[in-house]
Amino acid sequence: MRVLITGAAGFIGQITAKALLDDDRYTEVVLTDIVKPPVPAGVSHPERARCIQADLGKPDEVAAVVGDGQDLDSVLLLHGIMSSGAEANFELGYRVNVDATLAVMNLVAKTKPGVRVLYASSEAVYGRPVPKTRPVTEDDIPCPEMSYGCQKIICETYLNDYTRRGLLNGFALRFPTISVRPGAPSAAISSFLSGIIREPLAGKPCLVPLSDRDWRHWMSSPKTLVANLLVVLQLPRESLPLHRRAVNMPGFAVTIQQMLDALEAVGGKEAVALVEEREVPEIQSTLYSWADDFDNSLALSLGMKQDTSFVDSVRDYMATIEAGK
Fold first, then answer.
1. Same domain, 66 and 164
2. In what helix (H) or strand (E) does residue 156 lie, and over which residues does it extend?
3. Are 318 and 232 contained in the same domain?
4. Distance CA 180, CA 221 (A)
5. Whole-number mean pLDDT of the chain?
6. For the NAD-dependent epimerase/dehydratase domain, which residue ranges apply (predicted)?
7. 148 classed as catalytic
C-alpha cells in the first residue's frame, strides 16, 4: 500500500510516518512538507520512504507530489497553520489550511476517485455555546470562534460532499490537543499544555496563562493518536454515513492540577517550581470557550482507544526523549 502524508516534517507527521515505515503493509510512504521532511530515525523500512519538499499552494508542486495517483491508497492531510498563527495571519491561514488542502483533495479525487483521505480536523470547530452539563457529541453543531476552526469546518464540509459523491473515501478526524509534544513550542494557543511538562523536565521555565487549577482540557497522548490513525486507515467506507464523516477522536479531560501532579510524579518538586501560573487576559475568553468533555463512543465503536492517565502520557514522553538520545 502507498500512503501520502502532508505536513510530514511536523511532529505528528513524523511519528505517523514512523509507524507506517515500521509496518510491513505499507510499501511506500511519501512524505511532503514546505521543507524536505526527514526519514524518521530508527524505522524498520527507511527504503520505503520518499521525501519531497513541496509548496501545496502551487499546482505544479501538488501534481509532483500526487503523481498519476493510480497506486495511491491513502492520503493523510496533516499540514496546517496552527490556531493562533491562523488567527494572526488571516490570509496565510486560509491559503494553507483551506486552499492547499482542497488542492490535494481535488487532485487525488481526479486521479484516483474513491481514494482514502484522513483529514486532521480539530475540536476547535466547536465554540460557544458548548455543553457544560454533558459531553459534546458529533451531533452538536460546530460553531467555531476562531479562523482556525472555521478553516477546519470548511474542509470537513468539502470532504463530506466528496465522499458522498464517491470522489473520496474521507474521514474528518477532530483531534484533541496532543500532549506531550517534544520540540519547540508551536503557534497554537494550547501550546502550554505540552510546555507545562516539556520545559520543566528540561530544566526550563514555563508560563501557564491561567491561575485556575480546576480548568481542564481534552487531550490525547501522541502514542494513542497514532494508534487511532492506524485504525482509521483500515476502516471500511461504510463505517460512517457517506455525508457525515466527522469523528471526535478519543481523549480525556485533564485539569491543570492533574498536569502539575503528573509533572511532580515524574520530575519532582523542582520541576513544578519552574512553572509560573499567571493569567494572560487577552486569551482568557478563548481558553474558557473550549469544550472540555467529549463523548468518545463513536470513535470507540470504530475500534479506537483512549488514554486514561496523564502520568502515563508524561512517562511515554520521557521514554521518547530517552530513545532519541
1. yes
2. helix 147-164
3. no
4. 6
5. 94
6. 3-221
7. yes
On whether residue 257 sits in a domain, the answer given is yes
The reply to whether 289 and 166 lie within a common domain is no
Residue 229 CB-density burial (10 A; 0-12 exposed, 13-18 middle, 19+ buried): buried
Residue 158 lies in a domain: yes
CB 28 within 8 A of CB 17: no
Residues 106 and 213 placed together within one structural domain of the fold? no
Instruction: State the average pLDDT over residues 114-126.
Output: 96
8 Å CB contact between 76 and 108: no
**Residue 199 and residue 91 share a domain:** no
In the set 148, 158, 162, 317, the catalytic residue is: 148
- Say yes or no: 41 and 100 in one domain: yes
Domains in the chain: how many in total?
A: 2
Q: Which three cell numbers stand for residue 208?
A: 501557564
Q: Are residues 152 and 232 in the same domain?
A: yes
Alpha-carbon span 181 to 71, nearest angstrom? 33
- Per-residue pLDDT for 44 more than 70? yes
Tell me if 192 sits within 8 A of 207, measured CB to CB: yes
Contacts of 222 (CB under 8 A, 6+ apart): 11, 12, 15, 178, 180, 181, 316, 317, 320
Q: Is residue 184 part of a domain?
A: no
What's the confidence (pLDDT) of residue 184? 81
The pLDDT assigned to 310 comes to: 96
Residue 293 pLDDT grade (very low, low, confident, very high; cuts 50, 70, 90): very high
Which range marks the domain in which residue 234 is found?
Answer: 2-178+220-248
Query: Does a structural domain hold residue 183?
Result: no
The CATH number of residue 257's host domain is 3.90.25.10
* Contacts of 40 by beta carbon, 8 Å cutoff, 6+ apart: 14, 15, 17, 18, 21
For residue 73 the three cell numbers come to 491508497
E strand or H helix at 196, and its extent?
helix 192-201
> Which region among 38-42, 156-160, 183-187, 223-227 has the lowest average model confidence (pLDDT)?
183-187
Rounded distance, CA 249 to CA 169, Å?
A: 18
CB within 8 A of 16, min separation 6: which ones?
5, 76, 78, 226, 229
Q: Are residues 172 and 226 in the same domain?
A: yes
